[in-house]
Design a protein that fits this description.
Chain lengths: ~450, ~450
Amino acid sequence: MLKLFLWLRYLRKKKIVFLSIAAVALSVGLLIVVASLFTGFINVFEQSAVETIGDVVLTPPIKFGKYPLFIERLERASAVEAATATLSAQGLLYVSKGDVRRVSVLGIEPGRRVKVTAFKRSLLKQKESPGEPSFEVADYPESVGGFVGIGVLAEPDEKTDEYDFDAVEKMFGQRVVLTTGTVIEDSKQEGTEGAGRFKRELVPFRIADIIFTGVYYLDNTFICLPIDELQKTLYPKEDVQIADQIQIKLAGDVDADVAMAEIWGLWRVFAAEQLGWGPYLIRETSVKTAKQMQSQYVAELRKQMGVLLLIFGVVSFSVVVLVFCIFYMIVRLKQRDIAIVKSCGTGSGSVTLIFVGFGVCVGIIGSAIGAVLGYAVTKNINTIEEWIRVIFGLKLWKSSVYMFSKIPSEVDWSSAFAIVLFAVAAAAIGALIPAIVAARTRPVEILRYE
Amino acid sequence: MFFEKVMYKIILAFRYLITRPIAYLAVLAVFLCVFTAVVVMTVLTGLVTDFKQKNRSFVGDCVVGTESLVGFAYYEDFMKILERSDFVEEISAVIKSYSLVSPVGTERSVGVEIMGIDPVKHSRATGFGQTLYYRKNDVSKAFEPIYDANLLGCVIGVDLMLMRDAKSRYFYEASPRERAFSVSCFPLTARGALAKAETGMVNTKIFYYSDNSESGLAREDGSMVYVPFEQAQLLCGMGGGAKRVNAIHIKFKPGVKLQEGCEKVSLLWRKFVEEKGSETQAYLFEKVTVQSWKEYRRGFIAAMEKEQTMMTVMFGLVGITTVFIVLVVFYMIISHKSKDIGILKSIGVSNANIIILFSCFAFLVGFFGSGLGVVVGWRFLVHINGIEDWLFERFGFQLWDRTIYTIGDIPNQVDAKVLAAIILSAIAACMVGSLLPSWQAAKRKPVETLQVAQL
């Protein structure tokens, strides 16, 4: 009770204590925002991978046939919910007069793909439509349809970093031409136009829908075509359906390691029996979770977050110094109070506890305010960024630089909790020496008449 | 008289600094902040400066060009005008487009940017020659493969060809291996339509790997293939009739200021456009701009500059704590020195002089704190790469994974301007922190502080 009384009294009487609370709040708030933004970015990065390519990706060293049979076997496995095949290529897309873009071409099965990834959500036109997305183009039933990344068709506004959706939607049904290529056996003499083993193939198609994932690289690079159409173009002589990657969604409660082992087993059998592959090609097949595929970049991002938090943590060490100064001052000014308390029989340990406890109180109040501040800033970071753009004309976040169109705004509670604990400990450490000084006060020296 | 007026303030300020151990804490806080700021801002400024230099080297001083892949015509006439001018040292016409490149004999193909250049002219206008590996000393042979000078060569962005080790070094071979690449482009008409709409639509040509370009710019080194100017012009359909290019890169003569040079080019360009207004392809001039290298690469540079600004703002926020510390320390010292202040005022020292006295003290705290921070920060920076090497060898820790980032050594050249800004900010923060306590000290009346009860 005495401790509580003294804490409240010092808090009320010594306004300077609020400075230490403000300093703790500032440091805690800043560290929470930094940690949350980094963690949010990493989470969105990992999540976008899962939403784009599924939970597990199987990539053989070369393209392979009979993929529907393998998918059928996969979907019978307990660990797998759904699977889909893709066939990829690189190409150039002629969009309109004077506008040519380089693109990554993905042959997909739209019906299956929506079961494995969040693909449908990214289609501007068909995301609200019932049923599976389709490559059919309204008014052009005979034409080949394709999905094109929004960034391939338009650039985001320089100031707002937003796309002009009205203008982009006018491109539905527009005819574009893709040039891609495939290897031909009857190579001519090299060095002349049109020669070479790599033969160009042209695929004119109409834009059936536009992809907007919010991930700049995907929106700016990818176009999707029906896998059968792409196969017909690239490998016209193949009589079986071929793919170069299988993307897999795992069943809800299955362990990823167990699932990967099961997928490996199925692939080994399939590749040996159906494709006639030897051990080398089978061994060279990569089966990885989407998170494993991003792990190198995620590790780098986590390291950068650590370095940044360390830097700000070192600077925030000033908080310990500040708390020390303030508490030392209070102890020096309140020597008489301390002497009276001790003369009433309070032990040195209890006096130490009064000040250390007060330090902890300062830490708790400061970090609570800091946590609220950090939460508010993180949650409203996109609004704040927009204000900065409007007021100062400075666009801090651009999808072309930071990958995503929105700043991740989820608070990283585990980091926030660690930062709060660290701040409370720092405040207690700052109060420790003044508390020992107070405990060593001798009432007989302080309270004597002279 | 002046000496006496000033001396006591300095002596007292030093005396407070030396005799009050609590003042060391304020110095410590300033030191911590300055040390961290010097290290972080030096590294960050170094990265930004290095990035800017690489961009300037890549672009030259000024670019007359268009983003449109169609390009613009009559460029040869404008180049003659530029050559005649007294402020232009070198110019280089450039073709830029996208192409599909595939190593002959493989199924792989990759969409890249191609740049058609005259290697000699382009090396004079930009730093292209210095980015080469095998032909650095003889740029004229950049497109002549060492293994067969008769073959048509291409220079490939280093990240498209070679891997980097953990120290950001590429695995170059003694001479380039014989490799052929099939390069395909959409030839476009002056109106932007497909030039070969009725036939194959694309132009394809085989080029042989002759060298690598290591510009230090991740985007360019990972996506750019350089081919001879004339070949690029033909591939992109810009060679027939009125020949077209996408850009002219310009280097100014020494002593010509960037802004001044760009304005002169702009003026020449406007005149040229007026003169050529009646030509059949004059409409292509509408999209042509004259930009300095900074404007031309603004999209890339601005991102790094913004990060630098954000970091500065964050340091500013954290630095507020230092202001608080100085305030508290001064508050403590002043509360203990009320008798000194009373005596000073009783012998005629004015309120303003009391404030100046404590401001002097604050200056000393800021000066010594930031001085210490700068010295320790500088020593740390001198050894920062050695420390990183040691950490990497012992613990596998690198500040940046060099296999991901195209960063060599950690920049450690201290920028005098940055240093001055940090020191001044630290001293200013100390003086701001001391202002309120000094004001309170100045307001105290000697009659109150010197009465027997207070003594």
